[in-house]
Amino acid sequence: MTPANHLNLEAPMGVRPIERRALTIGVVVGLASLILAFTEPDKFFHAYLIAFMAWLGISLGCMVFLMIYHLTGGVWGTVVRRPLEAGVRTIWFMAVLFIPIAAGMKHIYFWLNPANVASNKHLVDLTHSYLTQSGFIFRAVIYFVIWIGLSWLLLSLSATQDKPPVRNLSPRFRVISGPGLILYAFTVTFAVIDWVMSLSAPWISTIYGFIFIVGQCLAAISFIVIVETILIKYEPFSKVLKPKEIHDHGKLMLTFIMLWAYFSFSQLLITWAGNLPSEITWFTRRLYHGWEYVGLFLVLFHFAVPFALLLSRPLKRNPRRLVKVAIWLIIARYEDLFWSVEGNFRQSFFVTLPDILLPIALGGLWVWMYFRNLRQAPLLPLYAHHTQTLLESVHE
Q1: For residues 204 and 278, what is the distance between their CA atoms, to the nearest angstrom?
Q2: Angle, nearest 10°, between helix axes 133-159 and 41-72?
Q3: Fewer Cβ in 10 A, N or C end of the chain?
Q4: Extended beta strands in 286-371, E state
Q5: Which pLDDT tens digit goes with each residue over 41-53?
Q6: Do 62 and 227 form a contact (C-beta atoms < 8 A)?
Q7: CA 248 to mean position of chain CA atoms
Q8: Could you tell me if 123 and 117 are in contact, meaning their C-beta atoms sit under 8 angstroms apart?
Q9: Cβ distance 212 to 205 under 8 Å?
Q10: What angle do CA 20, 382, 369 make, to 5 degrees?
Q11: pTM of the model
């Protein structure tokens, strides 16, 4: 007899309206956006890439935190393990959503047109050896195969803990998670080089991939804070999710805000000190014609203001206050991606209709898939050793 046999471990009915509304919004806005794919294809595919990277980041960030939890343990991860797994289950869905990027490459990547690179010998060599259409698609397949493979290993092993007997599978999870984090870091770095950095080839930055990795983790933990704020209204989360765990999640948000600021400033400082024309132009075009205001927005509202707020211990222990910071950070993450991607296409800053519609469309479909996944498994893996320990402490 487990100490929680009386708990209802199914996802609460309160998430079903969110799921339905998200699907409705995703489908309606998505269909409206498709019109723009034919009338303004360049703007459509540019905005699609940003929206795709934003929601893929949450999926992969959930996998990172899941593997970190399996390596380190701790109640902070036990209480949100299944919400994290629901995010991991969306990775295959993001593989499907990558198809429009592969289909619309000519509207996104200038190096596919030989006339655009003919004057630069380095780019000519690069487009013959690495930046090719077939190579781009082949590498993308490899990335998704690795990510989906890691998610399958983690999720299939986790599913065995929904049935008796109680088993401590931590050693097996660690065997997957240790190499998994290394594979994640390498594949995300190369994916960012292919999908984003190549927009400004031959510009290079050795820290660029780490900025995206940190951004994915920040977006994922912010989203999990939003989810746990919804779930804390219902059992079993109302019993197991305590201020200490919420505080831990707030501290993780603060950690990755600081890491994002550190990596971003390091990239700027090193590039500016080097003062090489092939590198400094990436920043100079983002410091004029309205882009400087986007950069100022990121300094203030992606770092300074959230950093100051999250220094407050009472705020980090209050889900209603912490969730407001989490929602804002997800918006700020999109602005950071917009600054990184659209700065390659526009000399001056302006916002188009696809920039507004596509993150909503993909977001609606992603949120629908997420909450659908959340209903596929109990909210706690009852026969996991760590869950049993947690529930015993709750009932003491």
Answers
A1: 9
A2: 40
A3: N
A4: none
A5: 999 999 999 999 9
A6: no
A7: 19
A8: yes
A9: no
A10: 20
A11: 0.95
